[in-house]
Amino acid sequence: EFNQYRVIRSMKNRFGSTNEIGVFEMRSDGLSEVGNPSLLFLESSSDSSGSAIGAVLQGSRVVFVEVQALVVERESEGGPLRRVANGIKKPRLDMLCAVLSRKGGVFLGNKDVFVNVVGGLTINDPAIDLAVCAAIKSSVSDKVLSKDVIYFGEVGLTGEIRGTWGIDAIIKEAERSGYKNLIVGRMKVGSSKKVNIRKIMRVTSI
Description:
Number of strands: 12
Order of helices and strands: EEEHEEEHEHEEEHEE
Strand order of the largest sheet: 6-7-5-4-8-11-12
């Protein structure tokens, strides 16, 4: 939960998929459903470096979230490096930092890394990996990423970027929400070829 909003997640569903989420706003007359959670999670997205927009599937619902990263170089050696993850699992962040250092040309061996999924949502979908890596690299290079780009893909230990299921739903929702550019893992796009997306870039490695 965060501010006046509440996120409800189904863990068991006899008649449908699990891991569905509902987002509600607390008002004076009770809870009111938020029809498009992506607008909530992205309503004040940052225009600074270290920010990327990722796409995830929560049950059958497509949600776009802002991933923020702050990378701080240490002035002196000593003590373990800090890897702080809010919204994703810390072991996942540890792995992504190692892959970026080894395969992505982003050395993090002397830097503390802080990652946050804005809005208080907890993401278990590995498709958020690419957005996390993009945000970290943006922070290191101090370059602002375009807010017109959605990142969607799982990053493996060898640095490869894999496509995950649900790409057609992601593309259609991106079009409906006004996004024109997607960077995704290598995957097959089905009927979504007909939608009005300006550019879908399929990348194979970090």
